[in-house]
Amino acid sequence: MRVALVTPYSLSVPGGVQGQVLGLARALNAAGHRAVVLGPVDAPLRPGVADDLAESFGLSPGSVFGVGRSQAVPANGSVARLALGPLSARRAWGALAAGRYDVLHLHEPLAPGTTWACLLRPEPKVGTFHRAGGEEAYRWMAPASHRAARRLAARCAVSEQARSSALVVAGGRAQDYEIIGNGVELERFSEAAPWPVEGPTVLFVGRHEQRKGLAVLLEAFGRLGRPPGAVLWVAGDGPETDALRRRAVPGVRWLGRVDDEELARRLAGAQVLCAPSLHGESFGVVLTEAMAAGTAVVASDLPGYAAVADGCGELVPPGDAGALARALESALADVAAGVGRGAPDALEAARRRARQWSMDAVAERYVAVYERILGR
User: Fold this and answer.
1) Predicted confidence band at 376 (pLDDT cuts at 50, 70, 90)?
2) Which of residues 340 and 370 earns the better pLDDT score?
3) Is the Cβ–Cβ distance between 101 and 126 less than 8 Å?
4) What share of the chain is helix, strand, coil (3-state, %, to 5)?
5) Which of 1, 86, 200, 245 is the most buried (most CB within 10 A)?
6) What is the pLDDT of residues 160-172, one digit of tens each?
7) Dist CA 356 CA 135 (whole Å)
8) Residue 140 confidence (pLDDT)
9) Burial of 357 (0-12, 13-18, 19+ CB in 10 A)
């Protein structure tokens, strides 16, 4: 089967949707299908650039198509990098027409730019909705977005929260949306060589912006009374990086952006993964990755995170630095003693739970959706 996976967000910038699209493409290709990825690329569209990008993503030459540069657009408490304008749409149409694909799989199909333009293509289309919250920005365009969504032959959502948001954005009934969670390439985390640590270590991974809650984590880490010598690894960057670094407490190590291999090794090396987001999380991919790596989880008690952790992590009220500090102290102590959340059987239970979101299993579910809309 020939499948084109389309993202509205720049492939040159790490992001949750981009990571899902690329991982799904690798899994589909490994299963014997022909999957390509199409989206914005913030580099000159000269010969060889897309193939270099494909190689860096673990895909074969000719598997990545860039539609042009992106621009920053505020969205849902974050910034989305989208390719807007007719030239990008024309490039997308040209690549899809030349490829003769059986199915177009549009991720965030109603986001402005690439995926919206591809809704007008004649091929059968599957739409996956990722975002949770931010429906207000779409309400004014609901009549048009509902009509556009009718061009989808199948609708999927990554969680109940994403489905609730999609019902506002795209209309329809709850039963019109099949929930297929985000996938994780489990072996990359379960088999990673742990990164060496200096002491009891907490890891944060994410964009440095208000909704990700890094400021709350830094306050909580500053309150830790024990264990002595604790270290906080902060991976990623963003608009608040400089301001947050100026207020950081001792023991914080600023890593900047890390590649996939280093991320997996850092997750395997840390004792605790902390995800302190304040809102807007439809799914907890980083929680699943930590569980696969055998790392204890402390996270905000958001519906998207709770659905993933389900007893395999410590959840605290969003924005409560005191509760977060207590949870981190407790988790680090448990891991050190091998009890509670840090007991071998608890970590193994988390690994087992993570397996249900293996990228191979997610790819199989999507193939079943593709075959259904094709009448096979």
Assistant:
1) confident
2) 370
3) no
4) 45, 20, 35
5) 200
6) 999 999 999 999 9
7) 29
8) 63
9) buried
Q: Residue 7 corresponds to which tokens in the numbers above?
A: 């993202």
The answer to whether 105 and 367 are in contact (CB under 8 A) is no
Nearest CA to 307 out of 288, 325, 329 is that of 288
Residues in the chain: 376
Q: Which two tokens stand for residue 15?
A: 């992001």
Tell me: the pLDDT tens digits for 97-134? 999 999 999 999 999 999 999 999 999 999 999 988 76
Which of 64-68, 69-73, 260-264, 368-372 bottoms out in mean pLDDT, i.e. has the lowest?
69-73
Residue 108, helix vs strand vs coil: coil
Q: What are phi and psi of 142, to 5 degrees?
A: -55, -45
- Element of type H or E holding 233: strand 231-235
Q: Quick one: tokens of 357?
A: 């979101």
d(CA 241, CA 234): 10
Q: What are phi and psi of 326, to 5 degrees?
A: -65, -40
C-beta neighbour count of 339 within 10 angstroms? 12
CA angle 160, 237, 186 (to 5 degrees): 50
Query: CA-CA distance, 236 to 76, in Å (whole number)?
Result: 19
- The tokens for 153 are 């032959």
Which pLDDT band holds residue 52 (cuts at 50, 70, 90)? confident
Domains of the chain and any CATH numbers: 2-183+358-374 (3.40.50.2000), 186-355 (3.40.50.2000)
